[in-house]
Amino acid sequence: MPTKPFPVACGGDLYLARNWGEESETMDTKAGPTEETKPYPLLRNLQYSPIKQEEEQYILLWDPTGLSAEKLIVPLNYFYLFQFFDGEHSLQQIGGKYLKKYGEFLMPDRLSRLVEDLEDKLFLEGERCEQAKSSALAAYREAPVRPADFAGKSYEADSEKLRAQLDGFFGSKEGPGTVPSQNKGQKIKAIVAPNFELKQAGPLYAWAYKELREAEAPSVFVVLGTCHAGLHGGIAVTDKDFETPFGIVPANRPILEYFKQHGGAQFFEEEIRHQHDPSIEFQLPFLQHTVGSLKPMTIVPVLCAFPVLAFTDPELKPLTDRVEAFVGIMQEALHALGQEVCVVASANLAHIGLRYGDRTPPTDFSFHRCMQHDLEMLKHVENLDPEAFAQYLLKEGDKRHVLGFSPIYLMLKLIQAEKGEVLRYDRGIIDQFNSTVTYASMAFF
Which of 127, 270, 271, 310 could form a disulfide with 238 if both were Cys (CB 3.0 to 4.6 A apart)? Predict the structure, then answer.
């Protein structure tokens, strides 16, 4: 088992020396290192985004797991240091890195205060963080349902307004319209839909869910989400019911119990990741709107995050074995219960730009080149070939950061279909630096 999570999108963090140009009032309140100061600080797997205020550039950091609700804005010179918050560099060594890079001496009291501030915000690994994780997991397991965490933020919280919002996606000029699908009435085996803000990508979701609405659809859906916070073991299953403004979406207890009792219990160890991750939640209003409004439905909620490199790196073989074990146990559970399902892969494609580690913002040329690679890659998905899909990314070194690899790969391994089809392709702009996420809707019959 790997000792650190496999990130889907990661970043570092640094002390807020300036908050939009203002000096921190608490910056110099402590004289130097205390006994509690971590001598070898280890930063958690955080996410970051570049931001600009007038002519100054900063980095915004946050915790994608939701364990900490804090956000932090730091100048670029401090952000540089976080690569050394790896549990192997002492505070003295980190200060030396700063001196070598910038030619300035970073006062020990400021570095000590930085570490304490990160500790207070639960941004560092350690005992305090582990206690918070244990408390959060206990609270999640005791909760009757997984609440709608993004209602009112990413989509309408009122059920009538949400229904009108979804209808608007289907009828918009970017949506699928009312012309019947060529696949109408066929048994649908899977769809791929974006894992992106509904307010922006809703019409793209609608292309996949129109196919689902017009097809012969089952009442059970294995929903594979992209875990934004990363996972130690690559896959996390939960048996929680999910709540949305339309009501409760029940988890399929017979499938999940069989899965758990026949070797799948290990995949529930990180179920806390479901608490604040949007990937599955974004699919549920569409599922309820297109299928749940016509008949009862249940879900099997699964988050996943494992790198394509796991299929070639010998050190990651335990992770590969877990992925294959999951596929085998889930297939056994579905077969044993005689259950027909439709698999929903909640997945974005490429992530390009400064926010995702590229040195320059995307241009029209680089985006169109990325689109070309995306569509070439998706040919292997249309052809129902998970190995060729993985090999394509391995060959290019996954330079485009295709973060939806995990759910699409698992979907291809789980289904038995005859054909796949890309229905629509588009992109979303993330920030003022033109950082871009691409996504597609697909259907499989």
Answer: 271
Record the tokens describing residue 18, joined without a space. 């300036």
| Residue in 345, 391, 140, 108 with CA at minimum distance from that of residue 241 | 140
> Minimal CA–CA distance to 60: which of 9, 122, 13?
13
Asked whether the beta carbons of 17 and 364 are under 8 A apart, the reply is no
Q: Are residues 103 and 191 in the same domain?
A: no
Higher confidence at residue 15 or residue 312?
312
Dump the DSSP string for 340-385: --EEEEE----EESGGGT-SS---HHHHHHHHHHHHHHHHHHHTT-
CATH of the domain at 93: 3.90.930
Do 152 and 45 fall within a single domain?
Answer: no
Q: Residue 142 half-sphere exposure, CB side, CA atoms within 13 Å?
A: 6
What residue has token string 């915790």? 63
Distance between CA atoms of residues 282 and 147, nearest Å:
12
Copy the structure tokens of residue 351.
Answer: 């992530």
Q: How many domains does the chain have?
A: 2
Q: What are phi and psi of 63, to 5 degrees?
A: -100, 110
The pLDDT of residue 56: 85
The torsion of the CA quartet 43, 46, 50, 52, rounded to 10 degrees, works out to: -80
Tell me the C-alpha distance between 64 and 47, whole Å.
Answer: 6
Note whether 105 and 233 are same-domain residues: no
Residue 213 and residue 343 in one domain: yes
Distance CA 123, CA 62 (A): 8
pLDDT digits (tens, 9 = 90+) for 102-131: 999 988 888 888 899 899 999 999 999 999
Residue-wise pLDDT for 167-186, tens only, equals: 999 999 999 999 999 999 99
Last residue of a domain, one of 87, 103, 134: 134
216 located within any domain: yes
Classify strands 47-53 and 56-62 as parallel, antiparallel or unpaired: antiparallel
280 and 238 housed in the same domain: yes
Chain centroid to CA 436: 15
Q: Domain residues for 52? A: 18-134
N-terminal to C-terminal alpha carbon distance within the chain:
36
